TrEMBL record:
InterPro entries: Prepilin_IV_endopep_pep
Protein name, per record: Prepilin peptidase CpaA
Segments passing through the bilayer: 7-24, 36-54, 61-82, 102-121, 142-162
GO cellular component, one term: membrane
Tree of life domain: Bacteria
KW tRNA-binding (keyword) present: no
Domain Prepilin type IV endopeptidase peptidase: 15-116
GO molecular function, one term: aspartic-type endopeptidase activity
Keywords assigned by UniProt, alphabetized: Membrane, Transmembrane, Transmembrane helix
Length: 164
Protein backbone atom coordinates (compact mmCIF):
# COMPACT_ATOMS: atom_id res chain seq x y z
CA UNK A 1 0.00 0.00 0.00
CA UNK A 2 1.14 3.51 -0.76
CA UNK A 3 -0.52 5.06 2.28
CA UNK A 4 1.76 5.04 5.28
CA UNK A 5 0.66 3.30 8.45
CA UNK A 6 1.53 6.52 10.24
CA UNK A 7 -0.97 8.63 8.28
CA UNK A 8 -3.66 5.94 8.34
CA UNK A 9 -3.34 5.67 12.12
CA UNK A 10 -3.69 9.44 12.46
CA UNK A 11 -6.78 9.58 10.25
CA UNK A 12 -8.59 6.40 11.31
CA UNK A 13 -9.90 7.37 14.78
CA UNK A 14 -11.38 10.61 13.44
CA UNK A 15 -12.74 9.23 10.16
CA UNK A 16 -14.23 5.97 11.44
CA UNK A 17 -17.14 7.52 13.39
CA UNK A 18 -17.98 9.74 10.40
CA UNK A 19 -18.04 6.69 8.11
CA UNK A 20 -20.42 4.90 10.47
CA UNK A 21 -22.63 7.99 10.67
CA UNK A 22 -22.72 8.35 6.87
CA UNK A 23 -23.65 4.69 6.42
CA UNK A 24 -26.33 4.92 9.10
CA UNK A 25 -27.94 8.15 7.87
CA UNK A 26 -27.93 6.98 4.27
CA UNK A 27 -29.62 3.72 5.27
CA UNK A 28 -32.14 5.54 7.46
CA UNK A 29 -32.83 8.67 5.42
CA UNK A 30 -31.37 7.97 1.96
CA UNK A 31 -29.15 11.02 2.27
CA UNK A 32 -25.63 11.91 3.26
CA UNK A 33 -25.72 15.06 5.34
CA UNK A 34 -23.68 18.14 4.51
CA UNK A 35 -22.51 18.23 8.13
CA UNK A 36 -20.88 14.81 7.76
CA UNK A 37 -19.19 15.80 4.51
CA UNK A 38 -17.92 19.08 5.96
CA UNK A 39 -16.68 17.32 9.10
CA UNK A 40 -14.82 14.73 6.99
CA UNK A 41 -13.13 17.46 4.96
CA UNK A 42 -12.34 19.38 8.15
CA UNK A 43 -10.70 16.29 9.66
CA UNK A 44 -8.35 16.18 6.69
CA UNK A 45 -7.62 19.91 6.83
CA UNK A 46 -6.75 19.72 10.55
CA UNK A 47 -5.08 16.29 10.82
CA UNK A 48 -3.49 16.23 7.35
CA UNK A 49 -0.52 18.50 8.19
CA UNK A 50 0.30 16.22 11.13
CA UNK A 51 -0.14 12.97 9.20
CA UNK A 52 1.45 13.92 5.89
CA UNK A 53 4.47 15.85 4.60
CA UNK A 54 3.36 19.35 3.55
CA UNK A 55 3.92 18.90 -0.22
CA UNK A 56 1.85 15.73 -0.18
CA UNK A 57 -0.79 17.45 1.95
CA UNK A 58 -1.12 20.18 -0.67
CA UNK A 59 -1.45 17.66 -3.50
CA UNK A 60 -4.16 15.79 -1.59
CA UNK A 61 -6.12 19.05 -1.23
CA UNK A 62 -5.89 19.47 -5.01
CA UNK A 63 -7.08 15.87 -5.30
CA UNK A 64 -10.17 16.79 -3.27
CA UNK A 65 -11.00 19.72 -5.57
CA UNK A 66 -10.55 17.63 -8.73
CA UNK A 67 -12.80 14.87 -7.40
CA UNK A 68 -15.39 17.47 -6.35
CA UNK A 69 -15.52 18.91 -9.88
CA UNK A 70 -15.85 15.42 -11.38
CA UNK A 71 -18.58 14.63 -8.83
CA UNK A 72 -20.54 17.78 -9.76
CA UNK A 73 -20.38 16.82 -13.44
CA UNK A 74 -21.54 13.26 -12.69
CA UNK A 75 -24.32 14.58 -10.46
CA UNK A 76 -25.47 17.01 -13.14
CA UNK A 77 -25.56 14.10 -15.59
CA UNK A 78 -27.72 12.13 -13.14
CA UNK A 79 -25.09 9.42 -12.63
CA UNK A 80 -24.59 9.90 -8.87
CA UNK A 81 -26.38 11.59 -6.00
CA UNK A 82 -25.19 14.96 -4.71
CA UNK A 83 -24.39 13.61 -1.25
CA UNK A 84 -22.44 10.71 -2.74
CA UNK A 85 -20.41 13.08 -4.93
CA UNK A 86 -19.64 15.39 -2.00
CA UNK A 87 -18.69 12.49 0.28
CA UNK A 88 -16.33 11.01 -2.32
CA UNK A 89 -14.69 14.43 -2.74
CA UNK A 90 -14.26 14.82 1.03
CA UNK A 91 -12.88 11.27 1.24
CA UNK A 92 -10.49 11.66 -1.71
CA UNK A 93 -7.60 13.32 0.14
CA UNK A 94 -7.39 10.43 2.59
CA UNK A 95 -6.45 8.10 -0.27
CA UNK A 96 -2.85 7.89 -1.46
CA UNK A 97 -2.77 8.26 -5.27
CA UNK A 98 -0.76 5.02 -5.57
CA UNK A 99 -3.62 3.11 -3.95
CA UNK A 100 -6.29 4.05 -6.49
CA UNK A 101 -6.45 0.57 -8.07
CA UNK A 102 -6.68 -1.03 -4.63
CA UNK A 103 -9.39 1.42 -3.63
CA UNK A 104 -11.43 0.64 -6.76
CA UNK A 105 -11.18 -3.10 -6.01
CA UNK A 106 -12.14 -2.51 -2.37
CA UNK A 107 -15.09 -0.36 -3.41
CA UNK A 108 -16.30 -2.93 -5.95
CA UNK A 109 -16.17 -5.76 -3.39
CA UNK A 110 -17.71 -3.60 -0.68
CA UNK A 111 -20.47 -2.35 -2.98
CA UNK A 112 -21.41 -5.89 -3.94
CA UNK A 113 -21.38 -7.06 -0.31
CA UNK A 114 -23.33 -4.02 0.91
CA UNK A 115 -25.92 -4.34 -1.86
CA UNK A 116 -26.52 -8.05 -1.24
CA UNK A 117 -26.60 -7.54 2.53
CA UNK A 118 -29.08 -4.67 2.26
CA UNK A 119 -31.36 -6.49 -0.16
CA UNK A 120 -31.35 -9.70 1.90
CA UNK A 121 -31.82 -7.89 5.25
CA UNK A 122 -34.87 -6.22 3.78
CA UNK A 123 -36.65 -9.59 3.87
CA UNK A 124 -35.50 -10.78 7.31
CA UNK A 125 -36.23 -9.95 10.93
CA UNK A 126 -33.46 -7.34 10.75
CA UNK A 127 -35.93 -5.06 9.02
CA UNK A 128 -38.02 -4.99 12.19
CA UNK A 129 -35.04 -3.59 14.09
CA UNK A 130 -35.17 -0.49 11.86
CA UNK A 131 -38.75 -0.25 10.60
CA UNK A 132 -38.62 3.43 9.64
CA UNK A 133 -35.59 3.32 7.35
CA UNK A 134 -36.34 4.85 3.96
CA UNK A 135 -33.83 2.59 2.23
CA UNK A 136 -36.12 -0.43 2.66
CA UNK A 137 -38.74 1.01 0.32
CA UNK A 138 -36.84 2.96 -2.34
CA UNK A 139 -37.27 0.48 -5.15
CA UNK A 140 -34.12 0.27 -7.24
CA UNK A 141 -32.28 3.04 -5.39
CA UNK A 142 -29.47 1.98 -3.07
CA UNK A 143 -27.93 3.93 -0.15
CA UNK A 144 -24.41 4.34 -1.53
CA UNK A 145 -23.19 5.91 1.72
CA UNK A 146 -23.42 2.42 3.20
CA UNK A 147 -20.74 1.27 0.78
CA UNK A 148 -18.78 4.52 0.43
CA UNK A 149 -18.34 4.94 4.18
CA UNK A 150 -17.42 1.29 4.55
CA UNK A 151 -14.86 1.50 1.77
CA UNK A 152 -13.06 4.47 3.33
CA UNK A 153 -13.08 2.82 6.76
CA UNK A 154 -11.73 -0.47 5.38
CA UNK A 155 -9.07 1.33 3.33
CA UNK A 156 -7.77 3.28 6.33
CA UNK A 157 -7.93 0.16 8.51
CA UNK A 158 -5.87 -1.78 5.99
CA UNK A 159 -3.50 1.16 5.72
CA UNK A 160 -3.04 1.16 9.49
CA UNK A 161 -2.19 -2.55 9.40
CA UNK A 162 -0.30 -2.89 6.11
CA UNK A 163 0.68 0.64 5.11
CA UNK A 164 4.13 1.58 3.95
Amino acid sequence: MSITAHSALWFLPFVLPICFYVAFTDLREMRITNQAVILLALVFVVIGPIALPLPEYGMRLVQMVVVLVIGFVLNAAGAVGAGDAKFVAAAAPFVAPGDLRLLIALFAANLLAAFVTHRLAKFTVLRRAAPGWKSWDTGRKFPMGFSLGGTLAIYLGLGALYGA
